[in-house]
Specification:
heterodimer, A: about 400 residues, alpha/beta, Peroxisomal Thiolase, Chain A, domain 1, 2 domains, two-stranded parallel sheet, about 35% helix, globular, B: about 350 residues, 11-stranded mixed β-sheet, 10 helices, about 25% strand
């Protein structure tokens, strides 16, 4: 990094939809009640011998007020839903956004893949399938969906870094604001539940047939989920012009490659250590200043082992939790949803219990929080580890950090 | 901040390496291969610009490549060629980042994964195909085989992919997160893409065996595949920069008027004979600005803009602008000296999205 710490970037709005709730307030209420809303998949069936539970969102999003191109994927609609909430939360509207340089940086996995199973099945069976499925795919790039709907003309980027996609999208969005490329960036991520992704994770034998248990001795894998979250990142000039009060900031971002394996994390957490170190160093924050960590915590044996060791070594004694016990693993949306929760918990001054954790694993040097906990500090960290060995880490801080 | 291009690695229908691309530029010719597409009336053949990755074995042993698919092989070959050209293949890569842009990702492996359970049952889903089908598989393979431990990023923004990903490269260099970025693009052809292509355009193609991208009223696109990689550093940190510098990257939308072009700018446009995009070029290109188009050398693919950036860099190194290849348009124009002119590589996406990458 350059010698001067990068300027913090203000978060002026947050939106979130996932299994716990249809907006951030509902989600937080559900998390602090300890609810775990998982069940069988609602939108597809599977021929596996057992049913793997998932975290569905019941809402079919048909009431979402989409003006331009309503025929888009569920991932696109989830992203839009979260974007609408974030924009309203920031006190912005369509008209106001049009007068500013606004970029969109979105993370996803399924939202960028041309893999419509019905279309492909019909293709295999020589049925000349309707090309509407392909047209919908071409219209559903998650960043383009938001830009098209809100008539934004700034830079677009859909990050497809697997499970760290939206952590990276927020880090990149903050860079766009910091460099002066944009006044505002809508940054986040979205992903829908899919039969195809479920088959993939089941085939890798990293899916739990019961509720996931991140960091627990008896953890057996992840549960998949769906959702989206968006942050409004805004420049100081834009904030000043709108008369917006300081709230919470993106302070730091670190990213790295393990350069080790396509699906397993580096056993010593080489890349994660580097990403955590860079993210903290970027904003001049030391480990004791961190109030809590929202860990990636998928519930898979490998991920949680590596993360536990890295957390113990780099941020000893700092409370941590995984929120995937409430949301499932929402893949490309996970980093953004966890960023939204991290910001909301920081502002609330409390974190919920790490859902699914009951029995400490003697092989892990650290364990997550077991109950709701007050958090007096002003800084929090959110981590993401991804297929391909990509790691992304964000540091968030309340306005008090700046003084 | 200007970005220095230290090395380029390219593979596509024209062959492998910058020499092959330069050779195609000089000759103005690149013959597409053929691929069979199934239809309800039986298979038909369509022209496709296909890439051969056999030269990857010059860099990576066969055993290490046995589970790596064609998509990642193209990216790996482009990466190795770019690093070799920059003299950085054997050096420490801990302060290097890797960025890959792709429109459709590992298309072939994506459908292989679907085959694994649609043709049998869910319990036959292939874990190998699944893990290789994720869009960032190529970036992962590059980081693993070249031991690149800086940040990694994969971007998928259809026609805007290359320029959008370049913004990230510039940000990383500006903030000092890395000393260099191995930046590249990759897209592959597969049977399903060919099928969709034929359904959308096959019957309409007036000249399906020859691209005529500057004849904006004609559907003449031919699908292509390939990869282009660049080793980038901040200006002043380059070991050598015979290719010049990326001076600016702009992403926006076509407005109501013409695209602006400063005096002393040459336009390299990404028109690819696809009428979905042609009307934008027709309506928004400024008059009186020297304009060339090289898509008949590499075909139609979402990340084609990266080939134009490579061609612009080769043009800078040679000090001349090559004529547009293929029939029609500016094909009869001779090579022209470039002088101190800038080159603006312009690509327009299906919704009027506009990306401009300026080299000088």
């Amino acid at each position: 990094m350059n010698n001067a710490p990068p300027t913090p970037v203000a978060i002026t709005g947050v939106g979130c939809i996932c299994a716990p709730g249809n907006n951030l307030a509902e989600c937080m209420e559900s998390l602090f009640k300890g609810e775990r809303k998982l069940g069988p998949p609602m939108r597809f069936t599977s021929s596996h011998a057992i049913t793997y539970p998932v975290f569905n969102i019941a809402d079919d999003l048909t009431s979402l007020a989409i003006i331009n191109t309503p025929d888009i994927s569920r991932t696109g609609k989830l992203g839009l839903k979260a974007a609408f909430e974030a924009i309203a939360c920031a006190g912005l509207d369509r008209q106001r956004l049009k007068s500013k340089r606004v970029g969109v940086c979105m993370g996803t996995t399924l939202g960028s893949v041309m893999n419509n199973a019905d279309f492909y099945r019909a293709y295999l069976e020589d049925q000349d399938p309707d090309l509407a499925a392909i047209t919908m795919y071409l219209q559903s790039n998650p960043a383009s969906v938001i830009a098209r709907e809100l008539e934004l003309t700034g830079p677009l980027q859909t990050v497809v870094n697997a499970c760290s996609s939206s952590t990276d999208a927020i880090g990149i969005g903050a860079m766009w604001v910091r460099s002066g490329l944009c006044d505002i960036v809508l940054a986040g991520g979205a992903d829908e539940l899919s039969h195809i992704a479920c088959n993939g994770f089941i085939s890798l034998m990293i899916t739990d047939s019961g509720p996931c248990k991140p960091f627990d001795r008896d953890r057996r894998g992840l549960n998949l989920g769906e959702g989206a979250a968006m942050l409004v990142l805004e420049s100081e000039d834009s904030k000043k012009e709108r008369g917006v009060q300081n709230r919470t900031f993106v302070l730091g971002y670190g990213a790295s490659c393990d350069a080790y394996h396509l699906t397993a994390p580096h056993p010593e957490g080489r890349g994660l250590r580097r990403a955590v170190g860079e993210a903290l160093a970027a904003c001049g924050i030391s480990a004791p200043d961190v109030a809590f960590v929202n860990a990636h915590g998928t519930g898979t044996p490998d991920n949680d082992r590596v993360e536990s060791h890295v957390l113990c070594d780099m941020m000893p004694g700092v409370p941590f939790l995984s929120t995937k016990g409430y949301t499932g693993h929402t893949l490309g949306a996970a980093g953004a949803i966890e960023a939204a929760f991290t910001v909301a918990c920081l502002e609330k001054g409390a974190i919920p219990a790490s859902a699914g954790f009951t029995t400490p694993d003697p092989e892990l040097p650290s364990s997550p929080v077991t109950g709701e906990m007050s958090i007096p500090g002003n800084v929090a960290v959110s981590e993401s580890l991804a297929f391909g060995g990509h790691n992304g880490v964000l540091v968030f801080g309340k306005k008090e950090v700046l003084s | 901040m200007k970005i220095a291009i230290n090395g380029i690695g390219a593979v596509g229908g024209f062959g492998c390496g910058t020499d092959a691309l330069a050779s195609a530029l000089h000759s103005g010719r690149c013959e597409p291969g053929r691929a069979a597409v199934k239809t309800t009336r039986g298979p038909v053949e369509i022209p496709v610009y296909l890439a051969d990755t056999s030269r990857l074995e010059d860099f990576v042993n066969k055993r290490a490549l046995r589970r790596i698919d064609h998509f990642s092989k193209m990216a790996l070959l482009g990466s190795h060629l770019a690093l070799k050209e920059a003299g950085k293949l054997e050096e420490d890569h801990s302060r290097m980042g890797v960025i890959v842009a792709t429109g459709y990702g590992a298309a072939h492996t994506t459908y292989d994964f679907l085959d694994s359970f649609l043709l049998q049952s869910d319990s036959f889903s292939s874990p190998t195909c699944f893990s290789s089908s994720v869009h960032n598989a190529a970036a992962a393979s590059i980081s693993m085989l070249l031991d690149i431990t800086g940040p990694g990023l994969t971007v998928s923004q259809f026609e805007m992919s290359a320029a959008s990903a370049l913004l990230a490269a510039r940000s990383w260099l500006e903030e000092g997160r890395v000393d260099s970025v191995l930046f590249g693009t990759v897209d592959e052809y597969c049977d399903v893409l060919g099928y969709c292509w034929h359904r959308f355009y096959g019957e309409k193609a007036a000249a399906p065996h020859e691209m005529r991208p500057l004849e904006f009223n004609m559907q003449s696109a031919i699908p292509g595949e390939g990869a282009v990689f660049f080793l980038l550093t901040a200006e002043g940190k380059e070991t050598a920069s015979p290719y010049g510098f990326i001076e600016d990257i702009l992403i926006g939308r076509c407005g109501k008027g013409k695209i602006g072009a400063a005096q002393g700018t040459r336009l390299f446009i990404g028109a690819d004979g696809n009428m979905t995009f042609s009307s934008y070029y027709k309506n928004h290109l400024p008059g009186g600005v020297p304009t060339t188009c090289y898509t008949p050398l590499y075909g139609s693919l979402p990340t084609g803009q990266a080939f134009d950036i490579a061609i612009a860099a080769i043009s800078r190194m040679n000090g001349k602008v090559f004529p547009s290849p293929g029939a029609g348009g500016c094909a009869d124009m001779p090579e022209r000296p470039l002088g101190d002119d800038k080159i603006d590589c312009i690509t327009i996406g299906g919704e009027g999205e506009l990306a401009s990458v300026i080299l000088h």
